[in-house]
Amino acid sequence: MKQSVPILRTNYKFPPKFEKGEKVGEGTYGLVYLATAKSSVGTKDSKKRYALKHFKEGREGEGISPTAIREIMLLRELQHDNLVHLDSVHINRAESSLWLAFDYAEHDLFEMIRFHRECRDLRSQNPTGLMPHHVIKSVMWQLLNGLSYMHQNWVIHRDLKPSNVLVMGEDAGPDQVGRVKIADFGLARIFQAPLRPLCDNGVVVTIWYRSPELLLGSKHYTRAVDVWAAGCIFAELCMLQPLFKGQEKKSPGNLFQNDQLEKIFHVLGQPTVRQWPDLDHMHHWHDNTDNIRLKRDSYPAQSQLTQVVLESMMRNAPSWYSGGRLPPECQLPNEAFHLLSRMLEYNPNTRITAEEALQHPYFTSCDPRPSPNVFAHAGINTPQPVRYFKRTAPDESQGPQQTRHVHNAAAAAPNFAQRALRDGATASSSVALAPGMRPSSGFTAGTSGRKRKAGAGEHMPPGFR
Ligand SMILES: Nc1ncnc2c1ncn2[C@@H]1O[C@H](COP(=O)(O)OP(=O)(O)O)[C@@H](O)[C@H]1O
Ligand SMILES: [Mg+2]
Predict the structure, then answer these.
(1) Which residues have a Cβ under 8 Å from the Cβ of 465 and sit 6 or more positions away?
(2) Mind telling me which SMART domains this protein's record contains (predicted)?
(3) Superfamily of structural domain 107-420
(4) Helix extents (H) in 9-108
(5) In 3D, which of 125, 129, 97 has the Cα closest to residue 113?
(6) Which residue out of 159, 171, 184, 226 is catalytically annotated?
(7) DSSP state of 20
(8) Which segments are annotated as binding site for ATP?
(9) Which residue has the higher pLDDT, 395 or 225?
């Protein structure tokens, strides 16, 4: 069912309905700003915040960006609690520019992973050093729920990665706080049976989340590419770093990425025709591009997935949890590893679907059960940071590397996480914190202007953010 999304014309550079705030995102196609609706000032909606995504003019003569058009068309058709909500579209014809106004989400998975990684690095203040299991499980359930809805409606996202998965903050109200929202439909496509090649617009899916069939030259995208990417996200939430962190080889139009494939083979072992009967028909496998088939001896004979994830979690956990044990709130049941391995199966035809994953015993028969608020578990909230804004320092002049991240302290509505972080609340204070989630002074809200920690950027894929 089409939802009514008002499309409004404007002559202004910024849609006049909104008060422009800080820059929150900088993606491939444009900038994203925080904004408040002017008309809501003084009303009960006065705290309602929006994310305004700006699309500049497409390539010369192209007019309005086709990516934007695709995003609007799809989001008018799709309505689901786990998909971002498009509120309105604002077109400036004279400049061929376009603004999409979305409901604002305080968090995205990229920032949440970074927050926990930074907590890990400041270990003395945060003894767990890992994302609590209930958060991971609820995020994954909601992500798969949104994905299953999209796939049932014949839409493939094609660019799932942590920064494209948002999570609503406290200002969104009690019904929406902690709700996961799949965002960024710029590369999403409707697919039909029989499948026609969908590779006309070149490379899709950021390399670390790209499935082996795409890397090996498959021209058909199926829902399975999204499930693979979601599996990579699952592992990353556990490890706080990407599972398959390959080096991208820049060569236009070529999906073959040897290093990325090798990273996958080192964890899962090299694929076999027995596991994946279509393997021989994969273009690069068949042609043995860069000797891809001949290095079997350097890879493990069996998948090492569980060991790799567990070892990484153990490394992140503090030394006083030694002896092969993780803190109880971070331990994953065997079912989690089983589901993960089903999501990262080589053969896209047997890889678990999003719909099947929701019925996996990990969700249906293991405690804790997934929750609609990913931060809440057993009456306790897991604190999250407020957003880092991206500001360009006037004294550092050139290029995207000048962007610095400024902690969103003053601008955001006071919420639990901020209060907890600002006050340095402990489990015994009036604000309850999950065990081991005592905030560090490094995240105190008063420290505006705090730069990202050195090394944080190393986790960003090439050409990303
Ligand atoms: N609704 C939103 N609320 C808050 N932040 C958002 C929202 N939409 C996007 N962002 C932020 O902006 C970034 C870029 O937006 P995205 O839609 O992914 O654009 P791009 O296609 O340029 O990657 C996201 O990674 C996210 O951090
Ligand atoms: Mg994006």
Answers:
(1) 26, 27, 110, 163
(2) S_TKc
(3) Transferase(Phosphotransferase) domain 1 (1.10.510.10)
(4) 66-77
(5) 129
(6) 159
(7) E
(8) 53
(9) 225
- Size (the chain), residues: 465
Q: What single letter denotes the amino acid at residue 321?
A: Y
**Does the pLDDT value for residue 329 go beyond 70?**
yes
37's enclosing H/E stretch is: strand 30-37
Alpha helices in 203-316 (DSSP H): 212-215, 224-239, 258-268, 283-287, 305-316
The burial of 310, by beta-carbon neighbours within 10 Å (0-12 exposed, 13-18 middle, 19 or more buried), is given as middle
**Is 386 within 8 Å of 108 (Cβ atoms)?**
no
Helix (H) or strand (E) holding 55, with range, is: strand 49-55
Place of tokens 């080889």: 249
Name the DSSP letter for residue 352. P
Is any ligand 1 atom within 6 A of the Cβ of residue 183? yes
Beta strands 107-108 and 165-167 are antiparallel
Residue 12 is encoded by which pair of tokens? Answer: 């202004």
Is the bond leading into 194 cis (omega within 30 degrees of zero)?
Answer: yes
CATH number of 6-104: 3.30.200.20
- 63-77, 311-325, 373-387: the lowest-pLDDT one: 311-325
Q: Which ligand is nearest to the CA of 75?
A: 1
159 in catalytic set:
yes
pLDDT tens by residue, 256-303: 889 999 999 999 999 999 999 999 999 999 999 888 888 778 899 999
Instruction: Collapse the DSSP code of 338 into the 3-class scheme (helix H, G, I; strand E, B; otherwise coil) and give the result.
Output: helix
Nearest CA to 142 out of 168, 170, 103, 115 is that of 168
C-alpha of residue 172 to centroid of ligand 2, in Å: 21
pLDDT above 50 (res 409): no
Class of residue 145 by CB neighbours under 10 A (exposed 0-12, middle 13-18, buried 19+): buried
| Residue 266 CA, ligand 1 centroid: distance in Å | 32
Q: What are the residue ranges spanned by the domains of the chain?
A: 6-104, 107-420
